[in-house]
Hints:
Elements: H1 46-53, E1 58-59, E2 64-65, H2 94-123, H3 137-149, H4 164-175, H5 188-202, E3 224-228, E4 242-248, E5 258-260, E6 267-269, E7 282-284, E8 290-292, H6 297-300, E9 307-309, E10 316-317, E11 331-333, E12 338-342, E13 355-357, E14 362-366, E15 378-380, E16 385-387, H7 392-396, E17 403-405, E18 412-414, E19 428-430, E20 435-438, E21 452-454, E22 459-462, E23 476-478, E24 483-484, E25 500-502, E26 511-512, E27 525-527, E28 533-534, E29 536-537, E30 549-551, E31 565-566, E32 582-584, E33 594-596
Parallel strand pairs: 5-7, 6-8, 7-9, 9-11, 10-12, 11-13, 12-14, 13-15, 14-16, 15-17, 17-19, 18-20, 19-21, 20-22, 21-23, 22-24, 23-25, 25-27, 26-28, 27-30, 29-31, 30-33
Antiparallel strand pairs: 1-2, 3-4, 4-5, 32-33
Amino acid sequence: MMQPTTEEDIIHDQLPEVDEYKASIGYRSKSVSPWRRDPTEKSVDPEGEYQESMEWTHDVATEETYESDWPEDFRVSPEPISKSSIEMKKPPRPCFWKACAILCTFILAIVVATSVLVVSSTDEPLDLYHWVHGDTDQYASVKAYISEVRGISPAEKFEDTSSPQYLAAQWMAHGDEMKLPVPTDRNPTYDERYVMAVLYFATGGERWEKKLGFLSGAHICTWYDEVNVQDRVGISKRQSNTVLFGVHGCEEGAEDDELYPPNNLLTGSIPDEIEWLQRLENLNLEFNSGLKGTLPPGLMRMDSLTHLILQWCDIEGTIPPEIGQMSKLEYLGLGNNQFTGVIPTEIGKLTRLELLGLDNNVLNGNIDILAPLVNLKSLYLENNYIGGSISEDLMMGWPDLEELDVSDCTLTGQLPTNLFNHDGTLKVINLHSNDLVGPLPEVEDEDNNLEFLALNDNTLSGIIPESWTSFKSLKHLDLSRNAFISTLPERFGEMTNLEYLFVGDNELSIGEVPKFLIELKNLRELSMKDCFLTGTIPDFLEYLSNLQFLDFRKCNKPFGPNPLAVSSFSFLTPFGFGARPYYQRAMNWRMKFLVVLEN
């Protein structure tokens, strides 16, 4: 049975994609911020965001650019339309309109009939449950077993005839095709079947996108369906495009018991009865934005769980201190919800945790409380009010750390000197938008595998160390909006995997556009905004075939009105250059390359 226990199995939704860092060069879209975008929405073209932010009157849907917004030398006069190009058509005959009227009447009749059926079904919702027969002897026996013999649900829950508990008991009594006899003593099979029915009704099972075999006459271990998730939004990455949604792995001899209905239109709240699924190891309800309420107390008593993934739901309230009882947890994903309050210190008792995701909530606390989590590989705390500082001791206590994201928080102090010396395990460090100060640490580990480093929007100062050229695997580097001085090391050209380089809004005196850029063949975006540049834009940039965005805004203030001149830039010749500081290479009227030289 497939288990989400490898790195490929877990979605790192908390970590922003590298494209989202395009906002760090100064432009922000008027639409939804890419930092907080819901994965269920269609992604916004980053290049389109730049167009919108600069008020480019470009209609992508119609491929139309309004001539009035272009400089004079960009305008193209439309060719006159000749009369011969216009096809004259005869007016339709009267019989055509009669046929249209008959067709419209037929369609209207179908719509009205369908509406009547829908209204009648919503007016009497219990008609959907043909097995609801009221207070029969069989129902009374089920109710007595559930509430009195086992104590799974309190008796008052059955007083409301629309409650999940009442509907589940009615189904067990009259609707279940398996027709299990009501036990007189503890019966885990019966208990789990009832709890699964409660979960179904509590989360709007009749409106799930996929029913997953729930309430069928089969054993609950077969209540699942194979789903192709290749193009499905909001699903954890697995080793295969086909994933089993539902309940599986609980057969005798199976390695793990999993409840996995992600992104399946679950609504309502998690029922407290879920604690009676005592064999369950993996509970994953991620990307069900209609799932609300708070974390039920019963959930905190599920000491068999190794995976609890509830990210991208709409759960609120505080994280209860009882979470420290879930001692077997290895993955805890509560990101992108509405949690508030202080992170309980009891979370430090979860020493088996390999992944902790609390990002995009309204939580506060000190990062030091996570020091006991010695097995951490992935830590996501971004977009909260997490304070404190990242010390040398803290980094030493996380020897296997691979991904660290505490961006957009309230961290203070200096970066630890051992931040980059982590035995080659660290691949992602994202600490942007904090209150960090002081110099950049040196890189002593030449075998590091760091791929993503974002330290922008802090108050870091000093020079960029020469030893940083050891970042041979680095793809994304953002140091913008700090207080760095001096220039860029010439050996930066050895970082040949770089795709995004942002060093703008610092006090760097770079001089001429660095020649080492010619070595960065994979470079896609370059921003040296508000640095001190002189000379011309060199021709060799044309040979950076992957380059899509170049930002040299406000880069020459000490050197006169406009000493940084455009030389040839032959790859922009389809439109040449006009008076505006925005230039584009035309390809179906979509922006493919943007150069910004505004001063």
